[in-house]
Amino acid sequence: MTDFPIIDMHCHTAGIGAGGSGCFVSPGLQRSWKYRIYLRAFGITQAELLREGDGLIPRRLSRTLAGSRRVAAAVVLAMDGVVDERGELERGQTEIYIPNEFIAAAVRCHPNLLFGASVNPCRGDALERLERVHAEGAVLVKWLPSIQHIDPADRRLVPFYRRLRELELPLLTHTGEESSFTRSRDELGDPERLRLPLQEGVTVIAAHAASNGRNGGEPNHRRFLRLCAEFPNLHADISALTQVNRLGQLSRLLKYEELHGRLLYGTDMPLITTGITSPWFHAYRLPPPTLARILAEKNPWDRDVLLKEALGVPAEVFGNTAKLLRPLLR
């Protein structure tokens, strides 16, 4: 057991603009088969969203999380969009948009949800937005560079990085390939592009530990490990590492015991409620009684914890998120 509560640091929500949320999903993504899977994963229908508003998803997340015996809270992530040359939101290039205001309001209603902000640093007022989300209680800033068209290695972002460091806000940024959307600039998920914020002293969290894809002629996870050896301020979350398309990647990462203090618990909710994370995919590694116990667990967060414990994730890792975020928890 860990001395710190278990916090899921990688939990998604979504919205279609219902109830004046300001959220939107692009027409292209709504036409994709992926959109229907995401609705099903959240356990809602579009008709329900239209009737009850986008706040329905955070409410259900909070209610399900309240039923967990193991996980105390979850960081729910906003998602900024693509920005044009004028530093303004480019709606036509943005596949999903979840404004900070929507998430900040949701977490005020649900004490077991924490505010994960998202600010595209290319916005004309990026620094002002950063100050605002910090004042509203954000515990981190989330990027998905390959979708938001952010180059973390762009030196024009140095003032943004320096303010992140001063505010002690961690930067959670996707690393590796991205397959949840209809298009992706995967070169922007190259962990090597994180060298600049790391040099500026930002606490950087590589989402999914760069566990898939290649850049520069080598696997992204090797590029991530090399950076870890250079920068003690580089962390990683273990979300998505039990998915069927990432089999073996969690055990590979756990072999580096020197990194256990920098690995953070996350789920990539709602993907843990879909078939791609079924414990059956790990049956070859689990004793039948253990597999049966995991399969019998109905709460998705508790089932995820049980599976990751069975796959060798040490107790320390489950408490690391709370330890890292402790200065920002209010």
CATH homology superfamily: Metal-dependent hydrolases
- Strand-residue fraction? 5-15%
Q: Could you say what the CATH topology is called?
A: TIM Barrel
Going by helix content, strand content and strand pairing, the class is: alpha/beta
Shape: globular
Which regions contain 5 or more consecutive residues with pLDDT less than 50? none
**What is the helical fraction, as a range of percent?**
25-40%
> Judging by the overall fold, what is the CATH architecture?
Alpha-Beta Barrel
Mean pLDDT: 94
How many beta-strand elements? Answer: 12
Reported for the largest beta sheet, the result is: 8 strands, parallel
Task: Tell me which oligomeric state these chains represent.
Answer: single chain
Order of helices and strands: EEHHHHEEHEHEHHEHEEEHEHEHHH
**Main CATH class:** Alpha Beta
Distance between the termini: 24 Å
Tell me the domain tally. Answer: 1
Taking Cα atoms only, what radius of gyration do you get, to the nearest Å?
Answer: 19 Å
Spatial order of the strands forming the largest sheet: 1-3-5-6-7-8-11-12
Domain Amidohydrolase-related: 7-295
InterPro entries: Amidohydro-rel, Metal_Hydrolase
Protein name: Amidohydrolase family protein
Organism: Geomobilimonas luticola
